Amino acid sequence: MRNRSENQITLVLIRHGKTKSNEEHRYLGKTEEALSEKGKKEVLEYKTAQGYPAVDCLFSSPMERCLQTAKLIYPELEPVCIPEWKEIDFGAFEGKNYQELKEDKRYQEWIDKNGALPFPQGESRESFIRRCEKGFQRMLKEIAEMKKYSMDMGNNEIEGRRGKKTIGMIVHGGTIMALLSQYGDEDYFDYQTANGRGYICTWTKENGKAVFTDIRKL
């Protein structure tokens, strides 16, 4: 039980706030876009309502909308960027919404296959999940380095850093779906979440395998 407890980490996965494209229900992947004024307001309102738990350290997608969200929610923390956590590449669908795509045969085929097909000129779900999982492994290495650094410090510093077990992750809706479907029990689209919201879960190892347990919505 001692090893299991030591390996447990609480994860707080938060989707970035709304952008103009989100408000217009457009596919927003690799395009850089800032938060809209409405998006900023909603995040701050939810923060005021104590919707976001305290975290000990913070990781983020390097995209602008995530970094802006991180600064709004946790201004006292400097996020560590994980490049593999950029949103999925929507390819030919990027920047378009349903009204603009509904006559596109490629889009209808993608819908008919429940989103399992690769995006035309873009990324497949499988490769995206693998990319996000690599980013998660990168984050774990970063955390291990933090612990290693703390062991070189004095006792007070060691004790202070050992208690850091709640990790904040400011990412994209797709990143959340990728990671939770990889390590949780449900399917990819079961983990959809609104802008500025997300999930809390526990990362641990069971029988040598990494899993997310106690997954619940913010």
Could you give a quick summary of the protein structure above?
With 218 residues, the chain is α/β, with parallel strands linked by helices. The protein has helices spanning 2-7, 20-23, 37-48, 64-73, 98-101, 105-112, 125-151, 155-162, 173-183; strands spanning 9-15, 57-60, 80-81, 166-171, 198-206, 209-217.
Notes on the structure:
The chain has one domain (2-25, 35-88, 124-217): 3-Layer(aba) Sandwich (Rossmann fold). The protein has helices at 2-7, 20-23, 37-48, 64-73, 98-101, 105-112, 125-151, 155-162, 173-183; strands at residues 9-15, 57-60, 80-81, 166-171, 198-206, 209-217. 41% of the residues lie in helices and 17% in strands. It is α/β, with parallel strands linked by helices and 218 residues long. α7 (125-151) runs antiparallel to α8 (155-162) and α7 (125-151) packs across α9. The chain contains 9 helices and 6 strands. The chain has a 6-stranded mixed sheet with strand order 3-2-4-1-5-6. Residues 154-163 have low confidence and may be disordered. α4 links the parallel β2 and β3 (80-81).
Helices and strands, in order, run as: HEHHEHEHHHHEHEE
What's the count of strands? 6
> What is the straight-line distance between the termini?
28 Å
CATH superfamily (homologous) name: Phosphoglycerate mutase-like
Low-confidence stretches: 154-163
CATH class: Alpha Beta
Number of helices: 9
Q: Structural class from helices and strands?
A: alpha/beta
Helix content: 40-55%
Structural descriptors:
6-stranded mixed β-sheet; alpha/beta; Rossmann fold; about 220 residues; 6 strands; about 40% helix
